[in-house]
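Hi C.,

You asked whether I'd gotten around to modeling the 292-residue construct. I have! Everything is below, sequence then structure, no commentary in between.
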Amino acid sequence: MSQPLHLKAYAKINLALDVVRRREDGYHDVRMIMQTIRLFDRLSLRIISGNEIRISTNLPYLPSNEDNLVYRAIDIIRSHYGIKDGIEAVLEKHIPVAAGLAGGSSDAAAALVGMNQLFGLGINQSKLMEYGVSLGADIPFCIMRGTALSEGIGEVLTPLPPIPDCWILLVKPTFSMSTKYVYQNLKLDDQTFHPAIDDMVTAIREGDLPGITSRMGNVLESAVGNRLSDITVLKNSMLELGAEASLMSGSGSTVFGIFTDKDRASQALSRLSADPIVHHGTVIAPFQKSLH
């Protein structure tokens, strides 16, 4: 057995999310502004005797077989590079599941990066991202991290400067959302609101936080069905408690608010934690590229 390799799998939020069209292959072309944040799962990998992939987590309901993205990420590297050793992966989850924060995708990204390091394979980031997109559209960004414009199905990434300093309050409601359900429920027509992605890119490049927050939008909020009222209540509560802006992240159900004052964000968390539809919340700073 080798010494374990310890990795952090960082969550993301979508500062803006637009769906351009539904493709013939069933996927959707998107334009999104992605932001890594300081909330992370911990993944440990080590080489073990035998030929199996062994997965264990602190959440008993998560699969430990090929239905787990970490398993599939490990397996794709083993298959492509002829690795016969067994692998033990221990996953400590802190990112809420089915929450629009790319927890599973980030875990898979960490597994790809970790396998590269563990076996000294010398795979460059671009190639790792190719393996990643074959497993999930958010995985390439979770490998790259930082702030980025994401296009295509999520695999075409343009790095952007870090957003200005701020505090981000995440609130995960008691319910979760199925990404598949949300995209299937999405209706794109002439009445669909589309966030101003290009204008937000300009604001990010200019370091203009008000310009960023004033352009936040998520087209998927219209597709959450009977949960829209709960999402709207949480967003409005964030604004009433001092957030510059509030939005659902990804396909939900997490709602986040951007604050310029940490104390105000902490007070908002205390107030929102008393809401019966809230069961998880945290205040974090944006992920900075210096942490790479």
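If it helps when you're writing up: The first strand starts at residue 5 and ends at 22.

Thanks,
B.
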